[in-house]
Specification:
globular; two-stranded antiparallel ribbon; glycoprotein; transmembrane; GPCR_Rhodpsn_7TM; 336 residues; transducer; Rhopdopsin 7-helix transmembrane proteins
């Protein structure tokens, strides 16, 4: 029973921290007009899918963990499995879309050309349609959702080795893991090599020391951001994929409940880390959060004072820094 309680406590923490983090990102986006950029629309899509997982799906597994058994029947199992599966894949495909966006803005767009919000909304719609097409087959017979791990959460059936079920697993890994991963690695590698080449050009042309240092700083910040994004992607989803493939092609009897449950629990940590990586690490969002928190502190100190409403009202000047990616020679701030 201790294992069930530990899982329940962990999921409670994921729900609370994930809820707060993603709500902050969404509220900042809605409140500050300067944050409503094409790039941040993708961040919003990520936060909404993570928030849906935290509010609609994960609480079912959390309550079942404290009860020591699944509480919602087979219908609830299919519902829970699909919601978490769909929202998780939305995150994966949005990761890929963000990497493509950065690649296009940095390497393809000139400084006077803008990547419009309308274009990004079409990309988001495509992400949802593609994900929906790929994740609904288990609901109508091409695989199914079953209880896994400690029998307090539901997942795709990896244990049935019939051709019908195995074919869907193969399709799922190709379309929903390896394809997004390939896109992310390819785009970030091209961005890195491009920025590294431009940095070396600045150095070789003996431009000013300030410009050389700026180029080095930009390359360093970009490299760190790309490594963080890719590392968390792999950390969250590789264990899940490894155990699933082991269950599919090996002897599933070797997979104990803790081994089966752990990767799915790790994957749920994306709810917590996504708003940190894509929101809090953004200079725009940080400034917006600081401004909002500053207003709240003043409101607490001066409750009832009419003048408090106007304190810190520099909203029109918020968030001037580039979102997510540092400036580069080929991308203007308006594009991002």
């Amino acid at each position: 029973m201790a294992a069930y309680v530990a899982i329940g406590v962990y999921l409670c923490a994921v729900i609370i921290v994930g809820f707060v983090g993603n709500v902050l990102v969404i509220v900042a986006f809605c409140k500050f007009k300067k944050l409503r950029t094409a790039n941040n629309c993708l961040i919003m899509n990520l936060s909404v899918s993570d928030l849906a997982m935290a509010v609609v799906g994960t609480p079912m597994s959390c309550s079942s963990s404290f009860a020591g058994r699944w509480l919602y029947g087979q219908g609830g199992c299919s519902y829970y499995g699909f919601i978490n599966y769909y929202c998780g894949c939305i995150s994966l495909n949005t990761f890929a879309a963000i990497s493509v966006y950065r690649y296009i803005v940095i390497m393809r767009y000139g400084p006077n050309r803008r990547f419009t919000v309308t274009m990004i909304l079409k990309v988001i719609a495509a992400v949802h349609v593609i994900t929906l097409i790929c994740t609904t087959p288990p609901l109508y017979g091409w695989n199914e959702f079953i209880l896994e791990g400690f029998k307090t959460q539901c997942d795709i059936n990896y244990r049935d080795k019939s051709p019908l079920f195995v074919s869907y697993i193969a399709f799922m890994f190709l379309a929903l893991f390896f394809a997004p991963l390939g896109i992310i690695v390819n785009c970030y590698w091209r961005i890195f090599t491009f920025l590294h080449r431009r940095t070396q050009e600045h150095i070789s042309q003996s431009v000013s020391l300030q410009l050389r240092n700026s180029a080095r700083t930009m390359e360093k910040r970009t490299t760190i951001m790309m490594l963080v994004c890719l590392s968390f992607f792999l950390l969250a989803w590789t264990p899940y994929c490894f155990v699933s493939l082991w269950s599919l092609f090996g002897d599933h009897r070797d997979i104990t409940p803790p081994v089966s449950a752990a990767p799915a629990l790790v994957a749920k940590s994306c709810i917590v880390f996504n708003p940190i990586i894509y929101g809090v690490m953004s200079p725009q969002y940080r400034r917006s959060f600081q401004d909002t928190c500053g207003k709240w502190r003043l409101l607490c100190k001066q409750t009832g004072s009419p003048s408090v409403v106007t304190i810190g009202s520099r909203g029109g000047n918020q968030a001037r820094d580039n979102v997510i990616m540092p400036n580069c020679p080929t991308a203007s701030k308006n594009n991002l």
